[in-house]
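Researcher: I'm comparing several assemblies side by side, and this is the next one on my list. It has 1056 residues spread over three chains. Same procedure as the others: predict the full complex and return the structure.
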Amino acid sequence: MAAIDDIPFKGLDQAAVTAWSEALGDPEWFRARRLEALAALEKLERPTGREEPWRFTNPRAAGLDRARIIRGGAQPGAPEELSPGHGKASSGGGSGAGTELEPGGLIAMADGAQTGRPKLAADLAERGVLLTDLATALREHADLVEPRLLVAAAPFDEDWFLALHATLVSAGAFLYVPRGVEVELPIGAVYRRTRSGATFAHTLVVVEDDAALTLVQEHGSPEELDGRAFHHGVTELFVGERASVQHLTLQEWGSEQVTHFGVQRALVAREGRYRSLLVTLGGGVVRIAPDARLSEGSEADFLGAAFADEGQRFEHRATVTHAEPFARSTLLYKAGLLGGSRNIFNGNLIISPGARGSDAAQTMRNLVLSRHAHAEANPFLEILNSDVRAAHAAATGRVDDLHLFYLQSRGIPREQARRLVVFGFFEEVLEQVSVPAVRRRLEAALEAELAREVAA
Amino acid sequence: MVTDARDLTQTPERINPVPENVDLGAYKYGWHDKVTSVFEPKRGLSHEVVEEISQMKNEPDWMRQFRHRALDYFYRRPMPQWGGDLSKIDFDNIFYFLRATEKQAASWDELPADIKSTYDRLGIPEAEKQRLIAGVAAQYESEVVYHKVREDLEAQGVIFLDTDTALREHEDLFREHWATVIPANDNKFAALNSAVWSGGSFIWIPEGVHVEIPLQAYFRINSQNMGQFERTLIIAEPGSSVHYVEGCTAPIYSSDSLHSAVVEIIVKPHAKVRYTTIQNWSNNVYNLVTKRAAAYEGATMEWIDGNIGSKLTMKYPAVLLLGPHAHGEILSVAFAGDGQHQDAGAKLTFAAPETTGQIVSKSISRDGGRTSYRGLIKVEEGAESVKANVRCDALLLDEESRSDTYPYNDVKEEDVTLGHEATVSKIGDDQLFYLQSRGLSEAEAIAMIVRGFIEPISKELPMEYALELNRLVSLQMEGAVG
Amino acid sequence: MPFVRLASLAELEVDRGHRVELSDDGEIAVALVRTGDGVYATEDRCSHEDYPLSEGWVEDHTLECALHGSRFDLKSGEPDSPPAVRPVRVFPVRLEGEDVLVDLPDDWAELAATLEVT
């Protein structure tokens, strides 16, 4: 087997994909799926930026034309623990007491390849919980993986980037929680980049009926990279009936040379509950599209907090579909923007015909902290059933002078007053973060951002 | 494709010799019978057709060139990827220019049954019906009123003509303002209109003049059939004010399936313009309109937009706030029934400090109809201390209908207060029960609730319109119409 | 700041923008415009919302952004109408026979060097 560690994007063909697949040790069924995806890729239109879904983020920021798809070769010194030791939060002082996470399981990858072996607490393993890397899952758990991977929640033939992902994915995680098992400690997955190139990573999560899970996905990198790093991550989650999944995704890339396109798709079965928290602090161009499809009586809560600094361009594009009756969903996204940054919140709330008794709300707020920031909030509704309670609200503004004045009149210096108002702004999201270590980490990151602003 | 429009216009005499014995008096009405044999109506769009249109109207050279360039823009621009379904418009099968005599004038018998029925039920008198069939809508029946209004306007120095005539008689004023708010290449359908426009209103209000009576096309000297490609230009000089009303609530049957109008309004400092439209085109019409006003310092622009008819309407009245303390407001109501899609909304662009704006949108869908609110609030760099608010509410009357809300909020300044709220609801069972227990039929109860729902907008309409709108609502709720 | 060859005269239609991309994500690009009296070069990115200026209409030594209609002076890069308020960068152009050479900033010139411009 030839050791193929990277291939160019240009000139991708059946031969190249087959060789790539062989180098990764794919089972036959997945090789076939990759080639199907390649065929689909040729038929799909590559986004140029003029299409509606890409009007806010330049799809070419992926820099694919001259990129090499890489797997491995990570720079030494990559920590494998879930810690703020990498990423923006730490460089600004986000590490420290109380921000370390004690996971029940951990899997890590860097630059498109697994690093180390997945770790799982013994008692969880005994109860049938599985945490494996992608290659192992493809080989040893095909029965669970094959009917789901890139065909059910995020079908590869749906759009160009998904087809590309299915063709090239080289690293990932498979997490399985059997029926009735409640996993108390969070399970962590770490995705790092340390060098230039394009990587495709996939995370497949299956939580059976009546089970419970908290998943924390962390993305990080050092501050300096040797060139543009494109990371395409897809997470597919299957939330069983009456199951409960909390999904925290932290974009804490240390470098602005990272372009990150993330797709998250959750299929929530009857009376299931899915809570998604996105935190975006790092990276140059970051576009995350979380998506939940709700069955009867199920619930989804989307939370988001972002802080964009000079030169960063973030897009958070959420979709919640009430496919069946009596589902409930909320969305609360907040962002702070410093000068020269851009953040877009796009919310798509879809109530299908027949989804009577739907209850949905969306709120998005951008807090503009300095001039030359560009904030957009577009809460969309598509309602095809009349028996619905749906409301949404969006607001953009700066720190309210009145609030500031009030605080200052109480003897609080202006900078601190501003800090208090900003924290107050994010409080609504922070208080709903269920993992204390993550919450503390966020608070620290906010502190760091604000400190940076003052120093500037 | 022609690469340089100037080529075509070099020697117009060669292409279309101007008839010698033309009676210039008749040109006031835009067409002349003697010319029938020379020009033949043809389907489809081309530089040749555009040249013919310009020749027929005997336009100055700059307008002819403007049309040709607009056609090039139309060809270059792709179809929009959003909004309604435009795939069935067959551009090659449309008459882009027909004279009044050639238009298929509908007779009473040819009208679709639902429209006839509406006219009867709305209690529209015979004379009105005739006018409606001719496409000339008016709220005032009497000739006396018509003449009185014209006298008043003249005394005030107001210019109110159809657009073709205005170009001829006030060329400098016209040219100064033409296409300054909506350039020919603004979007594909504005480009189309710019190439083949015909008819519409031209209004100029002198400085400090306040026109008390709402103006309508009826009061123009040349009120023809409502044209497919009407182009309206309204200029309000500093400190003046005017209210213009377009359309009518009664359904208008149009054999033309594509309507692409452009309305440009210039509201100079401290002037005020209100433009009210009620559109109720028959269900075969694609109604794609570009309407935009530029409001300068201290000016106020109000769009009142009612969308009742058409198969598909795409219309987003817009205000550009270009001077400090300018204010823009858009109140919009949309009804969509079986087979209809109202994709309407509003756009406010804040390009100056201390400007304000408000959007209120109310939409109602029933019988599988679809209403979409599509709006844009844009705050440009330098537009400090902007305050804007959007409220869009949708009412779905049954399980088959659909309502969408696509608000875009794009802000490039920090000192801005921008709020947006939207709700979607249906008529509550307990509300209905209560009203029925008071003796109202279900249809009457729903009508009452709907009227209450749209009240913030109907209260801004001239009384006759409001009354007719209310009656129309009752009819619609009964399901007796259509 | 070196002069770099970006196109041949034959590639440039009169009064029409021509785009030369320097970075692979399209963010760094130059718009070349040939008029009756010479060739002009600006950054191919509207200062309002980054739309490629090369797609717009050329008239009277201005280049109009096709998205919202701001016109930029080809010599100074200044916009003459909103919504754009900031100018775009302009670069000196030199013609050597059929070659169109543009005086680019160093980092742009480096990118241009990696292109295969025939």
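Model: For your comparison table: DSSP finds ten helices and 21 strands in chain A.
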